[in-house]
Amino acid sequence: MDNESTLELYREYPRPEHEAEIAKEIVDLMRDQMLKNYSSGKMLRDVHSKGHGCVEAEFIVRRDLPSDLRVGIFKEPRTFPALIRYSNAGALAPIGGTAHDIKRDARGMAIKLLGVEGEKLLDDEKLAGTQDFLLFSVNTFFTEGPEGFYDLMRAITTSRFANIRYLLTHPSVTFALVRSLYKHPSLLELQYFSAVPYRFGFKACKYSARPSRDRRSALPTKITPNYLRERMQERLLKEDAYFDFMVQMQTHPYKTPIENALVQWDEEISPFRKVATIRIPKQCFDSPEQLEFCDNLSFTPWHCLPEHRPLGSVSRVRRIVYAEISKFRHHENNVPREEPVLHEASN
User: Phi first, then psi: what are they for 220, rounded to 5°?
Assistant: First the structure.
């Protein structure tokens, strides 16, 4: 569907049988690699496996939103308690890994709101009082669709030669990967993006969380393996941190596409609009118990109200992959797979 005249605003173009087959191939590949990587200990996530920290937060919906932005959780002004997991992306790791923080990588910000009423999309989590937003520090996905993601992961996990050959023959993917790889001085100074689109009522949007204050720290003089966690903990012992949570509406079916996840939506065509404030209060978050609690959480963009349903082929495949891999990981670790309830947020 690459002809501009054939695309319609807010519309998806699914290929159910093909996408189900790709999802199965991705799940099988990731399961095999997880068994290989974590054969002698706790099974971590397939990607975003290194958790930098899990903090308690508030998600404060703006009181003065215009009517066109009063959708779903943004319908009324209110404050949702939230949990936020910061992580590495493991972009070039052979699925998983807990590399030194100085390694060039993208970083993730997974937000779980608590106290969200209404039935969710996932059958096994319909009545859970939570909703997830998954963001990371790059404004596009690594590949156009799930087929490219599978080919990339297969190349990475096969051999260094296969990986290099794939990158040399797929320049747009290589550019997206290279663009994501940075040494980051602080997790609280990065802007995070959904990278792929979501339903916003009957429309479509992308999400972003941007620090409310523009700070630019230098890398620490003493680089430790977990300096990102240490630096975030140091700051949150002194002061609160704030992010602006924003939406970017789809305005053109070709220039802001739904199915091609490699295309960056131009902010000149559609600027981000603030819909909420994220407040991360002063706290101590790096206890072993809290880190363990966070590692046992599941995050998926499909855990949401219907008004915020993920869109596009990458997300349709993620629905299957995230669920299967989460179930597999929790089974292998012999821990329950369940959503937190409101009173657990301070545990």
Answer: -65, 150
Collapse the DSSP code of 255 into the 3-class scheme (helix H, G, I; strand E, B; otherwise coil) and give the result. Answer: coil
Structure tokens at 210: 């941007």
Question: Would you state the pLDDT for residue 96?
Answer: 53
Record the tokens describing residue 248, joined without a space: 């970017």
Q: Is the CB of residue 326 less than 8 Å from the CB of residue 335?
A: no
For 271, counting Cβ atoms within 10 Å of its Cβ (0-12 exposed, 13-18 middle, 19+ buried), the class is exposed
pLDDT at 346 over 50: no
CA separation, residue 324 to residues 138, 267, 268, 292, 320 (Å):
25, 35, 38, 21, 6
67-83: burial string, b at 16+ Cβ within 10 Å, e else: eebebbbbeeeeebbbb
Phi, psi of 121 (to 5 degrees): -75, -30
- Pair 89, 106: CB distance under 8 Å: yes
Residues paired with 200 in a beta bridge:
203
Mean pLDDT in residue range 135-163: 92
The secondary structure of 192-230 as a DSSP string is: EE--S-EEETTEEEEEEEEESS---PPPPSS--TTHHHH
pTM of the model: 0.94
Top CATH class of 15-342 equals mainly beta
8 A C-beta contact, residue 27 and residue 321: yes
**What is the per-residue pLDDT across 74-86, written as a single tens digit (0 to 9) for each?**
999 999 999 999 9
In three-state form (DSSP H/G/I as H, E/B as E, the rest C), the secondary structure along 32-68 is HHHHHHCCCCCCCCCCCCCEEEEEEEEEEECCCCCHH
If we measure between CA atoms, which residue out of 193, 271, 230 comes closest to residue 52?
A: 230
Angle between helix axes 146-158 and 160-169 (nearest 10 degrees) is 140
Nearest 5°: phi and psi at 112?
A: -120, 110
